[in-house]
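BUG: 3D viewer hangs when loading the predicted structure for this chain

Environment: internal workstation, default settings.
Expected: structure renders.
Actual: progress bar stalls at 90%.

Input used:
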Amino acid sequence: LIQMSEPKRLELFKEIAGTITYDERRKESLKVMSETDGRREQIKEVIQHLEKRLEDLEEEKAELQQYQKLDKERRSLEYAIYDKEIKSATAQLEELEKSHESSAEQKKNMHQRAEELQNSISSTETEMKSLKLQSSELKEKLEVLKKEQAEYGKKEAVLVLKLKGFKESMKAEASKRNSASSDLSKLKDQISIAEKDLSEATKAYEKHSEQEEKTKNHLRIQTQRLNALCAKKIRTDQFTSKKSRDDFLKKKIIECEARIKTIKKKIAQTRADVSMINKVSVQMRRNVDTKSKELDKKRVNIKSIVKNIEDLNQERNSVNNQRKKHWKEDASMKKKYNEWKEKFDNSERDMKSSMDHNVFQALRSVDKFAKEQNLQGYYGPLIELFSCQDIYRRCVEITASNKLFQIVVSDDRIAARIINHLRNTKSGRITFMPLNRLRETKISYPESSDAVPMIKQLQFDDRYKLAMAQVFGRTLITRSLEIGTQFARSHGFNTITLEGDQVNKKGAMTGGFIEQKASRIAACLGKREAQDELKKIKAVRDKIEAKINLQNQLEAKLAGDIAKAIAERRHLRNVCDELQSDIKKYQRNSGLEDSKKKNKDVEVKRLENEIKQTEAEIHSHKSEMKSDLSDELNSQDQEELNKLTKETTDLQRELIDIGNRRAEAESKKKRIELDLSTNLKKRAEELQASLNTQSQEEAKEELSTEEEELSKLADVIGDVDQQVKNAENDLDKSLSRYNKLRENLESMRAKEASQESRLASESKNSEKFFTKRNNLQSRQRECRKKIRNVGALSRDDYTKYSSSSLKTLMTKVKKCNEKLKKFSHVNKKALDQFTSFTRQREDLLERKKELDKGGEAIRKLIDHLDMKKDEAIQRTFKGIAKHFSIVFSKLVQGGKASLTMKKKEGVDSKNMRTTDNYAGVGIKVSFSGGTGSNRNIRSLSGGQQSIVALSLIFAIQRCDPSPFYLFDEIDANLDEVYRRSIANMILEQSASAQFLTTTFRPELLEHANKFYGVVYKNRMSTVNVINQNEARETISSIEKV
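Structure tokens produced before the viewer hung:
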């Protein structure tokens, strides 16, 4: 501020005063005024040229007026001629259009019929392909079914033969059982008789045996007594004295007594054996009873198990019947599934044929990716998100075109994920419509019965509204192309007819015949419908499959239960056989024990009789010892001897007789027992065993199983036969339908060929029509062009020759042209040029006046700007000068300072603007306060220059305040007094501005309210907030250094 030159200081004051804006506007005004002056000069030159040319044209006006009269008549005649030609061409065009409209209507009907034929042929071919495929599948199925039928037939034959063998075997076995039952009955009767005979023989045998035993015992006693008497008779021969005899007899008595003891021991042992035998017999009988009861229980269990097996088999049959029912339902649903799958494939094939292959691949890849990732916010292609009536399908498809396959997503994040997937898998390219990027615009649709908004004819979810509006929102459906053209011009909408003819809002029209074999929307709807039906059918099939699995599980469980029950029955039967065997064994052992007991009882009786005999012998010996030894018996003994001899003889004869009867009874008993044990009972046991054998029951069960299997196989064969029959019927129907369709197809192709021939003929007629119409339209355009070239005429001139014939008009035109040849040298445009030049001169004069007014206004503006600029500079200079003096006097005690405006030398101030007279701003200062002590700025010291500069800054601040000031060591060259003055001034000025200062002196710290310490250490500067005391200490330490 101090070192800069005075002109630069003046520029600074101008900038502070804001005169730059005035200067810029003044420059722009001067530039505009210069351009205005240039245009005025140009206009002046043109006006001079036009005035000269108008003088020349005045001389040519007379001849031109005669020429114009003849020319007007000629143009009137030409107009009449051209008008007649236009009317003639228009009439011909109208007649041609009428014939073409009828032809077009016929052609349209033919096209419709051709399209219907093509659709019918296409649907017929599709149905024929389907029928061919179905016939092929039915043939394969029929072959498989026939093979199954043959296999099941073989199995059935094997089972029938097996069952026949079983039945024959069962029949023979039944016959055998009947015979065995009859034989067993007879045997039982024989056994009963034999047992009765055995009982009688046994009684007789026991009676005779008892008699024989008694007789034997009596005979033994009598014989023993007889022998004792005989021995007593001959004792004298043996012994010489009674004593020796008695000794001998004592020995005999002792021997007999010893024998009796031995026999008694034997009897006790035998009785103990009998007691043991009794216990064993009792145990045997108990075992027999236990085993019999157990056998009865087992047989009851077997009956219960058999009943359970029958119930389980019935339940199993019920489960199998239910499963067959589910199988039939599944087969029916499978057939429906295949039919809908074929429809789905056809629809997908139609969609594929209607779009680019890469787009189709991309759509499939995106749909698969979305399902795998379960993308939330993926809605699918646009075509899948709406539906419409059939009548609107064509116009909707044409309007949307390939936009139908754009993917609608919730936001661009989902779109980015899918795009990355397409890039990674190289699956093609596709366009997305993120709903968050689409903006809703309010569209006002016209209310008319001739046009309806396309978007209102679509059915869709509200969340897709932005996407639908993006594609269909600006399109109207109109009744005809003409109505569509009107709406496109008047309302700015794209329009389309139901036939597909379009009018763009800019006026472009497209349309005509559109060959469209397959509708994209119809294919998509078919695909969606097929998908929905496939999902429903799959859900039903899953339920049926679950039921079949449940039935399979039940059948497997029942089969397991049946097998388990059969195994348990077999086990129980084996147990029954074992029990029967054990019972027989126990019964046999019981019989043996009874026989042993009888033998033991006989042995006891024999031993008891032997004891009696021995006791009798002892009694005899004791009696003999009481008698004397003698050669002869006494009378009593002799009489007894004789009696015993006779009784012994009689007893022997009786014993022989009884022995014979006993032997005869024993022989009869043994014969009967042998016959019972070895013949009758054994045969009865064999017959009973054959009747009680399990083989018959097992055979019955096996027969029942085989019959059940045969029944099942018969059901399966019945089902297979029915399936074969159905398949043959379906195949016959399919082949019949195929042949009928082939005949229809040939007929339709013949019709199509005829239709194509007629269409080709119509196309040729159409070409002829268009050629004629183009020629007539060309004639119309030429005539209209010639009429336009004729120029403007009065109303009378237009109708002057309207009643004349074309020949008369041609004659008059010829005469008129001959007259006009005389005026060939005349300037035909003289009058027009005169009028045009006159008009141009008036326009230029008017323009010149406007330019003069504009130039004067610009000069006034420039004067006004100069005045405002001068006022701003004067006002700024005075304010800064005033505050400069005040501030300087405050900073320098007794000092004075002022600012002076320097004027340019040698300039007449009366002829110049005030602001142009100033050359710069000077500074005058006095630090002592004397009038003659003003000093040059450059002669001041650094501290004095700083004071002057700061005074000027504070003065400028008061005139043009800034929000803050940054002072960097402004007190470096000042002494303490000036530093305090500066600090006080900053404190005073800080009420309206913020001051940021750096210093190494303590005076500026007195009034500051925030302190920062800057430390440079390790090549880094660190700024820390400190308080006033810390700031003073820091500065004190710096001053000491």
